[in-house]
Each structure stands twice: as structure tokens, then as C-alpha cells.
Amino acid sequence: MEKKIAVIRGDGIGPEIMTQALAVLDAVAEKFGHTFRYAEAPMGGNAIDAFGVPLPDASLQTCLESDAALLSAVGGPKWDTIDPAIRPEKGLLALRSGMGLYANLRPAQLIPQLRRACPLRPDIVDRGIDFMVVRELIGGAYFGEHKTWEENGETAASDLMIYREHEIRRILRVGFETAMKRGRRMCSVDKANVLDSSKLWRRLVNEMAAEYPEVELRHMYVDNCAMQLVRDPSQFDVIVTENLFGDILSDEASQITGSIGMLPSASLGDGTRGLYEPIHGSAPDIAGQDKANPIGMILAAAMMLRYSLDMPAEADAVEAAVNTALESGLRTGDILEPGKTAVGCAGMGQAIAANL
Ligand code: NAD
Ligand code: IPM
Ligand code: MN
Question: Which Enzyme Commission numbers does its entry carry (predicted)?
């Protein structure tokens, strides 16, 4: 098959991990007889430097004309003090919203080989860690009005968190459907003891639950959920939640699977076209040093093969190649066990590509 993939190399460690993901995709193409055409779509800090905006129209267009888009990460200290309206992160939000990607799937799974990289007690780990965070991606506080103003001699600021019924229903649908395909347990996470948007969320969850009698449903407040994730993550199968809560809980989830460098994500809308990225950022502290873990990025490419390109066998092969590399003892610095030597970003990526 021939597929067109928009490639967003990003900032910081972005270009390093993208190079490794593309090497893995090249190995997939070779092994399975496909042609992947890569179309560069600059976005983020590098796009601000080159074009003055974080998401040039041409980049959005390239993504909309591709079968899928692959993104590493954007942002960094260089752009932290510029006009907030054109920060690198705004480019990412505009891309997600411009592509209509309201559902962000973030699978948190502890690969057995990484048992020792998990900071939780062995008896907790032994109960198993395998859940999916279904995060609403283009609503809530990220997309409400942001303002800063002067009032009584001091500065005030506000960010509006708005959810409309249709925005909640479409993500809940993804949550319930995901639960049906997995362990049929769904935990809806909100702050309904304080927020009106959460009260609406909870009412709609209860309404939709009538359509999914096979799914065991629970509601949980977000503060409790943050605690339960480290007390006993085995209790979770699917977590469905709003944008900001999902952002925070998924970083927490990543660390219990070993490292934030391990977790991929898929952002989907109504069609099959999606955006695939690791959940971590541009890691400016280790950029340009060949230290980044490319596995989250490579597993994001595997999710792309599965969800947008209809290549499940190819996705399985990439995941198996990652497991084989970990099995053989290769570790980047973030998942290194005491007394062992770390391999670099390129070393890890090449080993995974070679396993294909
Ligand atoms: P970060 O995820 O970039 O880094 C947090 C910590 O995790 C750092 O110590 C970093 O070295 C480590 N880390 C992250 N990815 C790693 C990897 N693949 N391998 C090894 N270690 C890894 O978060 P931050 O420092 O809060 O943010 C840095 C920049 O990235 C900010 O500008 C932020 O806005 C941006 N960001 C972008 C995205 C995205 O593009 N999707 C996501 C999160 C943050
Ligand atoms: C993520 C990131 C982004 C988010 C930022 C960079 C806008 O943290 O993808 O998790 O909050 O969604
Ligand atoms: Mn995040």
C-alpha cells in the first residue's frame, strides 16, 4: 500500500526521536512492501523562527491532505517569553482543533521487561498495569477565553472552562466503545463536587450508560483518581476525562509504566485520519545529546499503523520489535536500572528498526 504521512519534526528532542521513528517506518515499509510518502509539516518553535507563526496554513493543509500525521513534540525555553498568542503550544492546539481531533487515546501499559523501572511496590505492580486514558482534546479550559487584565492596582487572569453537550457526548461515546473492546470497565473522572462542567459531564455519562449495560461504570473525583493511580493502578481499565484532567493524569500514568519517554498517544476525530505523538514534551534539558528515549515516539507510529493506516500486523511487528529490544537489555537513561549502561536515542532506534 502507498500512504502519505505528514511529518512534524518539532523542537528540542523532537527531530532526534522523529529520525528514529521514520527509520522504523522505513523498515516496516521494506518488510511489508509498502510505500510511505513523508510530507514535512513544520509546526512549533521552529515554525515561529522560519515563518513567524507556530502553525503555518500550509502545514495544517499538509496534515489534512495526508492519511495521518506524526508529531514528536514542540516548545522550549527559547519561545517561553514570546507573545502567548503565537507560542509553539498554540500551534499544537490549533492543529488538534483544525483536524477535529477530539479524542486522545493514551494507553498506559507496563511492559514486563520494565518492571524494575516502575516506582511502585512489587506487590502493586504484580496486580498488572494496563489501562487507557481517553482524554477530551479540543474543549475545556484549553479552548475557552483566556484573559489577563488590571483591576484595583493588581493583575488578574482567567481561563474559561466550557463544555457543550455535544462535545461531552462524542468523547463519552469513544470512552464506552473503548471499554467495550477492552475489559468493559470505565471510570469517568471529574470534579462534580465543585464544577458545573463536571456536573453536566456526570449527567451525560449516566444517560449514555443506559446504552452500554455491559460496561461496569464508576465515577471518581480527579483528586482521588490521582491518588488511586499510584495506590492500585490495576483497578483501571478505561479512564474517560476532560482535557486538563487527562493531561495531568496521563503524565502520572506514564511514570508508573517506567518513564514518560515510553507512552504514545493517538488523537482521533470522526474519520480515520489521526495525529500521533508521544505524550511527553520537547525535553529541552536533554535535547541534542542523544539521550532521549525514542520508544514513545516509535509506539505512536505503531498506533498510527493500527488506527489510521489499517495495518494491524505492521503495528504488532513494531510493538514486538520494541519488546525484543527491551528484552535484550537495551535501556535509555530514563529507564536505566542501577549498575547498567545506557544506550543513546539513535542506538535504541536502530536496534528496534533492526529487529524488524
Ligand atoms: P517534558 O515532557 O518535555 O519533560 C519532562 C521531563 O521528562 C524532563 O526531565 C525530560 O528530560 C524528561 N523526558 C521527556 N521526554 C523524554 C524522553 N523521550 N526520554 C527521556 N526523558 C524524557 O515536559 P516539560 O519539561 O514540562 O516541557 C518542555 C517543553 O515541551 C515545554 O515547552 C512544553 O510546553 C512542551 N511540551 C510539548 C508537548 C507536545 O508537543 N506534545 C507535550 C508536553 C510538553
Ligand atoms: C500534551 C502537552 C500539551 C497539552 C501542551 C504542550 C499544549 O502537555 O500533549 O500532553 O497540554 O495537551
Ligand atoms: Mn501533557
Answer: 1.1.1.85
Buried b or exposed e, range 194-231, using 16+ CB within 10 angstroms: ebebbebbbebbeebbeebeebebeebbbeebbebbee
251 catalytic per annotation: yes
* CA distances (Å), origin 141, targets 81, 103, 267, 308: 21, 16, 18, 28
CA 323 vs. chain centroid, Å, equals 20
Confidence (pLDDT) at 338: 86
* Model confidence pLDDT, tens digit, residues 191-221: 999 999 999 999 999 999 999 999 999 999 9
For residue 3, pLDDT over 90 is answered with: yes
For each of the domains in the chain, give its residue range(s) and CATH number, in order of start.
1-107+259-356 (3.40.718.10), 119-256 (3.40.718.10)
ipTM passes above 0.90: yes
pLDDT in tens, 288-339: 999 999 999 999 999 999 999 999 999 999 999 999 999 999 999 999 988 8
Is the Cβ atom of 247 under 6 angstroms away from ligand 2?
Answer: yes
Amino acid letter, 308? S
What's the chain's Rg over C-alpha atoms? 20
Whose alpha carbon is nearest atom 12 of ligand 1? Answer: 283
The pTM of the whole model exceeds 0.80 = yes
- Identity at 116, one-letter amino acid code: R
Q: Quick check: CB of 11 below 6 Å from ligand 2?
A: no
90 is in an annotated binding site: no
